[in-house]
Amino acid sequence: FGIDRLKIRRSDIPAITHVDYSARIQTVHRETNFRFHGLIEAFYRKTGCPILVNTSFNVRGEPIVCTPEDAYRCFMRTEMDYLVLENCLLSKLNQPEWVEEENWQDEFELD
Questions:
Q1: What angle do CA 88, 44, 36 make, to 5 degrees?
Q2: In this predicted structure, which of 3-7, 41-45, 57-61 has the lowest mean pLDDT?
Q3: How many CB atoms are closer than 10 A to CB 75?
Q4: Are 30 and 73 in the same domain?
Q5: What pLDDT digit, counting tens, does each position of 50-83 carry?
Q6: Measuring CA to CA, how many Å separate 71 from each of 55, 74, 80, 90?
Q7: For residue 47, which phi and psi values (nearest 5 degrees)?
């Protein structure tokens, strides 16, 4: 194992590879989830990367998104470019300017 192991490239996609070189893989089959499989295929054709990352949907320190309103709020407060809710695709460029009513970053302590 040793220090030389640190020089080895972990992955072509390091964001999905744990420090022990493992990853939590989930597969999608066309037969059981046709639409999502199609999304991954389209993403692959566009980017050359046949992988989507499954992660928690929240800003660090905040609870995980639970409602469409939570999702939209998180989307507008972050650097996300797009938000998909069911059959609706939202582009940040097409949204009205977001105005904060309070200092939302002080609502929750960082973990």
A1: 40
A2: 3-7
A3: 21
A4: no
A5: 888 777 888 878 889 999 999 999 999 999 999 9
A6: 14, 5, 11, 11
A7: -115, -20
Take residue 40 and report the two structure tokens written for it: 């991954």
Q: What amino acid occupies position 80? A: M
* pLDDT tens, position by position, 12-27: 777 777 778 788 888 9
Last residue of a domain, one of 11, 26, 54: 54
The owner of tokens 């490239």 is 9
Domain that holds residue 89: 56-111
Residue predicted with more confidence, 41 or 109: 41
| Residue type (1 letter), 81 | D
- Please state the domain count of the chain: 2
Q: Which two tokens stand for residue 14?
A: 């390091």
**3 and 44 co-located in one domain:** yes
